[in-house]
Amino acid sequence: MGIFDVLRELLGGGQASADDGRAAAVDDSGTDATDRGAGTTNGGAETTDDDGFRIPENATRGERVPFGALAATSRPELRENAEEFAEFWSEYELDFTPSSIPAVDELFATQQDRANYLSIDLGDGYEGAVAPMASEPACYFGEVMVRNYDAEWTFDEDFGWALQFGNGQIVNVFKTAHQALEGDPPFVMLHDTFVEDIGLDGAPLDASGGRATVADVDEGIDPDDFDDEAIAAAAGERDSEELIADVRGDAEDLVEAWPAYEFDYSVESLERLDELVTAEFSGPAFADAEVGSTDDEVSILLTAHTVNAGSYFGEVLRREYGGNWRHTETDGLQLELPISDGAARVSPIAMAEACLAGDDTFTERYAGVSEVLEEVGDQLESGD
Questions:
Q1: Domain match, 255 and 171 both
Q2: Is 238 in the same domain as 149?
Q3: 271 vs 345 pLDDT, higher one
């Protein structure tokens, strides 16, 4: 049972259960949405639980997690939630066009008295609370924005799943929807606010209507915070052992950040790494990004993704073939793999740059490295 199914059961009343069978009870206390998990955030690392939810660690207040962290475990699940919502309320003719958004507000208004909260025990001391009547239409609204405008779903480190627009602006749409449970239906106002304030290629649905106060708006990474000279100087002060420890940590960061892909350092997991690259690290959003640049937010993000993916790829090679990471001022960071009486050196992070650029895949790169190792080994053994 997925999280959407757990939420859907609430509309019928009674008990629901999370994916692992832990109890998840309906809360009819009427507690204010802001007090039940919105929280104030200041940035920080993510943690994971056994169900695959990615919980922004310092976004919790009172051992609760943000609404957006509970909405889904992946972009495909967000889309599935939206499609199931549209099918369930088929009488409202929800066809994923902007013109269907007024119908979502109409539906929202009729169901606000069902603003019960589902409390989900996530383990490790974390508990989440979410109102289906806010979360479900927010999934649909977000998909309308993604399918019709320059917008995409992103997982923000502070408040979980959120909408990100082409200008880099990130909006916590799930918190905004929850706060609207005690006010006016929000979605037409949200749409028109985004069209006017962000400059989306569309027309307001209610030209004379009000505009929304959007909760938790983040401009993302500020490239001005990065001092290239300071970064280079700090890197130059790190010795080889520190850099090698970093690369292994970068690989682990990838594993922890994307639990749904079940990265286990196996050769088979490289297929899932390719799927992650296609789903998260490519497309128009990264079209103008440059690996290694700190001039813009997208380049900074692509560089981080490249380092993490390349480090993971290198760790898969190292564990499969043996060998060690090595670093020199001349060659930089490389992976040294044993071949017969010698050794071959590869640069996994450079390979990752090609893979994230769409010029290759990690599965193909692995096959290529394997072939070269075999050929060179044969040559060394034969004396050619």
A1: no
A2: no
A3: 271
